[in-house]
Fold this sequence. Notes:
Nucleoside Triphosphate Pyrophosphohydrolase, six-stranded mixed beta sheet, alpha+beta, five-stranded mixed beta sheet, 14 strands
Amino acid sequence: MLIFRGKEILTDTLTGNYADIKVPAECVVGQVSDKGNGLTAVEANAGYSAPEGYGFTLIREYFASHDDDASSIVARMKGLLGWKMSTRFCPVCGTALEDDTKETALRCPNCGKVHYPRVEPCIITIVEKDDKILLLRHKLRNQDLWCCLAGFIEVGESLEHGLRREIREETGLEVDNIRYMGSQSWPFPDQLMVAFYADWKSGEIKVQEDEISEARWFPKDQIPVSPQPGSISWKLIHYAF
Ligand SMILES: [Zn+2]
């Protein structure tokens, strides 16, 4: 059983792998079982503390210290847990949903509609100009961190179209030569981050002031305080693909 508490996961302090123990029922606020891999995950409340020999680790740090296969299990179970806890009623008819008997899905006992876990595609990108990269600081979250530009793909868009739109909206720049680098499941709550580099083509920086406090070009060897290892954002900034 995988045990999550917000953005943390319970790990065995000796092995560093996820703990496979039970949680007292009164501490469980959500639970999901995956029929594909046979695993169960629970969300523990803030009152649950790690038993001896175990400790809570940030999920992001777990990703940084485990390979893709091991990280993928944790990303899947955390993603499923978030989906299960936020999908309680049928969007078609409003009836309370039940676990499907065969698949990892929720079924409406009234209209029969089956609801599958969702993934939301997001682009994440670094624009390059000569030997500099574009980083930005957000107004509402992680204000002290210089981050990659990222955003959700809208209905009807390709990844490339969404990427050009996000860059244009947030910084006023146009880009060219978009290169796919890799992707990462980011279950906070349900994103698939798709990472690209792109070349600056035209325009001067003019940030969208509602969301961005500052965007600036940084020489690749003078990177400011930015996201930690474990995220694809870190890989982009540090050319670690
Ligand atoms: Zn229904």
